Amino acid sequence: MRSKVCVPQKLSQKFVSNIFFPPQVHCLRSLDNLFVVVQEFKDYQFKETKEEVLKDFEELAGKLPWSDPLKIWKINTSFKKKKTKRKKITQNSSKEKTDNGQGDKTDERDVKKEFTSNVLDSQILDYYENPAIKEEISTLVGDDLASCKEETDESSREDTDPELLKFRVTCNRAGEKHCFSSNEAARDFGGAVQDYFKWKADMTNFDVEVLLNIHDNEIVVGIALTEESLHRRNITHFGPTTLRSTLAYGMLRLCAPQPTDIIVDPMCGTGAIPIEGATEWSNCYHIAGDNNPLAVNRAANNISSLLTKSQVKEGKLSWGLPIDTVQWDICNLPLRTGSVDIIVTDMPFGKRMGSKKRNWNLYPACLREMSRVCRPGTGRAVLLTQDKKCFIQALSRMGHVWRKVHTVWVNIGGLHAAVYLLKRTPQPFVHPSEQDGERSPW
């Protein structure tokens, strides 16, 4: 799911600063990216040949209304600079209070080293979340990719100019009927943007990121307001199916947690859902469980890293989070019947984890055990899956204990998945063994 905030271009600077871009906009929990729209084309008419299409992209750069979007970008940049300045002052102040010797300095360096070492994990996350199904993402900047030497030779002269901005162009293309690649679109459009503004191309240390989003016949040109996706906030140890924190937040919001609710993720993986829940709904109690010991270990490490990060940021000891990690069997949870208020989980799609064949047995067993531990009448569940056919058939057999309330369609790395909001019916759970006259162990 690529959630984002899009801002129209024709807005006064005062209106934008007061309404759309307070500093808190970067704290929105369900948004991956923020960008201001330069111009949107709902039904763009592509030419027949690649050469003609790329020529149109070159000419498009000089025709776009850049002025107001760049004003918005400047306002947003000033907010970020103020935030960074305040953060440095706070860190220096806390450092003076807590620096009692060389040992403390060493610990701080170790903590920073731990966080910077997780850059590779972020790249792993991109690999797992973007299987490149009918989607291309390219970051290029015109002909300057082939002239790195010239940029290096001129860097000392151009860096002294405070008005000279560095930029890059990122093209996100989806659709099967295009005669060009995202690389080619980004290259030609980026070259035209550079010629128009006389900006310096820089792939990594850029000031402005221009976005060219192409989806079938729809084109959106924008300017990024975030340097990286906002979903990378709580997870430092990634697994093969790590869920975005933004999607985890959206799933939790669907079930409307109330104070003192017990919220369980029985297939937690790296713990994205319960960690997001414990961060945003600290007045609830969260349990993260999984049958894989590696997953439980990753979830525990993510909790520990988040607490360490919070301690470094605030300069004081943290009291922890209302969350526990447990290794268990999803089909035989060590929880009392009717003891859980909310269940939120990402079920195996049968692609990277498990198999679609196994899902035909797993899904009914999961729904049955979830109905046992979930509180009758008030309990609810939010379940994510891409194996929709299997899930719907399993749910149809459990109509006496689960009622589907709502379905939200999401895009998970190019896969069309669904988030199902279920309500627990008032009917008490009856264990299969009780139906045979045996006494249930629960």
TrEMBL record:
<feature type="region of interest" description="Disordered">
    <location>
        <begin position="84"/>
        <end position="110"/>
    </location>
</feature>
<comment type="similarity">
    <text>Belongs to the methyltransferase superfamily.</text>
</comment>
<dbReference type="GO" id="GO:0030488">
    <property type="term" value="P:tRNA methylation"/>
</dbReference>
<dbReference type="InterPro" id="IPR029063">
    <property type="entry name" value="SAM-dependent_MTases_sf"/>
</dbReference>
<keyword id="KW-0963">Cytoplasm</keyword>
<protein>
    <submittedName>
        <fullName>THUMP domain-containing protein 3</fullName>
    </submittedName>
</protein>
<keyword id="KW-0694">RNA-binding</keyword>
<dbReference type="InterPro" id="IPR004114">
    <property type="entry name" value="THUMP_dom"/>
</dbReference>
<dbReference type="Pfam" id="PF02926">
    <property type="entry name" value="THUMP"/>
</dbReference>
<keyword id="KW-0819">tRNA processing</keyword>
<feature type="compositionally biased region" description="Basic and acidic residues">
    <location>
        <begin position="94"/>
        <end position="110"/>
    </location>
</feature>
<dbReference type="InterPro" id="IPR000241">
    <property type="entry name" value="RlmKL-like_Mtase"/>
</dbReference>
<keyword id="KW-0489">Methyltransferase</keyword>
<dbReference type="GO" id="GO:0043527">
    <property type="term" value="C:tRNA methyltransferase complex"/>
</dbReference>
<dbReference type="GO" id="GO:0005737">
    <property type="term" value="C:cytoplasm"/>
</dbReference>
<dbReference type="InterPro" id="IPR053943">
    <property type="entry name" value="RlmKL-like_Mtase_CS"/>
</dbReference>
<dbReference type="GO" id="GO:0016423">
    <property type="term" value="F:tRNA (guanine) methyltransferase activity"/>
</dbReference>
<keyword id="KW-0808">Transferase</keyword>
<feature type="domain" description="THUMP">
    <location>
        <begin position="109"/>
        <end position="225"/>
    </location>
</feature>
<dbReference type="Pfam" id="PF01170">
    <property type="entry name" value="UPF0020"/>
</dbReference>
<dbReference type="GO" id="GO:0003723">
    <property type="term" value="F:RNA binding"/>
</dbReference>
